[in-house]
Every structure is written in structure tokens, then in C-alpha cells.
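May I ask for a protein sequence together with how it folds?
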Amino acid sequence: MGDWTPTERRFSELPVRLVSAFILIPMALAAVWLGGWWLATACAVFAFVMMLEWCAMSATSNQYLLAGLGGLFAMSFPLQLTEMTVAIAVAAYCLASFGARAGIRSRVSAGFGVIYVFAMVGGLYMLREGAWEGQSAALYFMSFVWASDAAAYFFGRAFGGPKLLPKESPNKTWSGAIAAVLACAICGYFASMIEGVDHFAWMACGIAISIVAQAGDLFESGLKRRFKVKDSGRILPGHGGLLDRVDGLGAVAVVGSIALAVHPGLATALGL
């Protein structure tokens, strides 16, 4: 999660951040564990809130209509009616683009917000409900992202050093980024032991997950910088908005679900 909060203040907010995490994580795990309509409902809530956050951040009009379409988009997943799901997404994109303020930048920004939010919730649902062992895949990938975030946060604060991309996210350091990759490689090793498969495949997967998650964090940080906001919202004390919290996980869900769908052998190599 990209953060422009001063380092000393981030430490003072740690207890609040932990409380928020302890509430949000079990809810996310329960939705993914149950899957189906439970996960679709959670995705709908997330899509609704994230769409509101995007509209507020980018000054996009029709925020409640777009948020409602985001919720409908997610609730359509279990129906497995591709035409309906695509139609809702197209309607939201058109409403955002044509309803935006005059100017190409405003229209592109509004349309991109729909793609950004819808892709993240769609990617998570697809990761859980894909042709592979979706429950295990989603739980593994989520835990890897959280391990990456935690390692980057604590090791980055402890060791400091050169900044990763100071113009985009001044609190991210190379020490934190490297620690995050190593933490996910270790997680991959233990996952391979649990699944009884080759260590290399899961360790490589862990490294890739950390890199994608950090890229998602930095991308979100860049977006907020361009919109001149510190947080996407205030719904999560100590974290900001949902977009701030799920940027890395959303990127991993999209890339991971596509990778598993395009390369069926990957699921086999991972024991999924």
C-alpha cells in the first residue's frame, strides 16, 4: 500500500492499523472460504465502496449509479451469464465516460476507474471459482500478499535505506521490497511442502506474487499522487480506503487468475 504519511506518524497509527486488519482479514477469509454467493456478495460490497472512492478521488459524476452497477456486476458472477456481466460492465463504462466532465482526460479517467475496480473484484472471484482448486489458490495468494505487505512494512521501517520510487511512494524502500520478496519465497517453500510438489514452482510463484503485489501498490500510489490525494477514502482507520488496502491483492488476483487460466500446467505444478 503506497503511503505518503510521515514515517513517525505511521508508527503511531500501527495499533489502529492492526485492529482494522484483524477485523477485515477474517471477513475476507470467510468469504473466500465459502465462495459462491458469499464471495459474490463480499465482492459487490467492495465494488460499491471502491467505485465511490474512485469517483470521489477523480471527481467522476454519477457516483452512486456507478457504485450500484459495480455491486450488480459482482452479484452477477454466480449466475454464470457472461452476456449479462459484460452488459453491466459496458453500461458502467459508458455511463462513467460519457457522464464525465468535458475533456478527454476526465473521460479517460472515469472510464479507467470502472475497468480498474471491476477487474479487481472480477479477478478475485475468478481466482476462487476457476477450474483449478480455487479455494486453496485464493487463500494461498491472499496470505502471500499479506506476508509481502507485512515484511515490506516492518523491514522497511527497521532497516530503511534507499527509496524504491520516491516520487510515487516515499515510504517504500529497497530493503522493504527485498524483504517482501524473500518472505514470499519462504511462504512458497512451505506451501510446496503442504501440497507435496516441487519447491521451485511455489517459490517462484511466491516471488512473482510479491512483485505483482508491490507493483499494484506503487500503481495505486501513482494514481493518488496524480489526483493529489493521500488516501482513496477513510473507511478503514489507519489504512485509508478500500482501494488503498486491496491494490496489491487486486493486482495479484487479476494476474494470478489469468495466468492459471492461460497456463493450465501452472495449477498442476502448484498442486492446485
Notes: The CA atoms of residues 82 and 234 lie 34 Å apart. The radius of gyration is 18 Å.
